[in-house]
Design brief:
Blueprint (H helix, E strand, L loop, with lengths): L6 H13 L1 H4 L2 H7 E8 L5 E3 H6 L8 E13 L2 E11 L5 E14 L2 E9 L3 E4 L3
Parallel strand pairs: 1-6
Antiparallel strand pairs: 1-2, 3-4, 4-5, 5-6, 5-7
């Protein structure tokens, strides 16, 4: 039996994929997930477009990112808002933070692509573990 995935399942899977270092380092994989009109407001205040996203490589050291608390809001058919929290852990310093992300996804044919993302500032604290 072929179970059809829900919109929640599709977009959370794609959000997980975008967080993977392998995806972030692969321009072809990013191109499939990110719309040509993409814009991001980063936590540092920087604004990025798709071309910049495709050119940049993952920051070193790569943070371990654990997404949680996903919320989906279908704005209109073919347009959805996905918000979630990220727990980020710096593997070198042990710093831990929580980041809020809000993204807008657009259906293009049979696929969903990321068109907008806003990242809220993270406050880090030393990991005592």
């Amino acid at each position: 039996m072929n179970k059809q995935l829900s919109l929640f399942d599709i977009l959370t899977a794609q959000a997980h994929c975008l967080l993977q270092a392998e995806t972030q380092a692969n321009a072809c994989a990013l191109d499939k997930l990110v719309d040509d009109a993409f814009i991001e407001f980063a936590h540092c205040g920087r604004t990025s477009r798709k071309a910049e996203l495709l050119r940049r490589s993952p920051a070193c050291p790569v943070l371990e990112l654990v997404p949680e608390n996903f919320k989906l809001n279908e704005l209109i058919p073919g347009l959805a808002q996905l918000s979630f929290q990220l727990k980020s852990v710096n593997p070198v310093s042990g710093e831990v933070g929580h980041i809020l992300r809000c993204s807008i996804w657009k259906r293009t044919g049979q696929n969903w692509k990321l068109v907008f993302q806003q990242v809220m500032p993270a406050r880090y604290q030393q990991n005592d573990d």
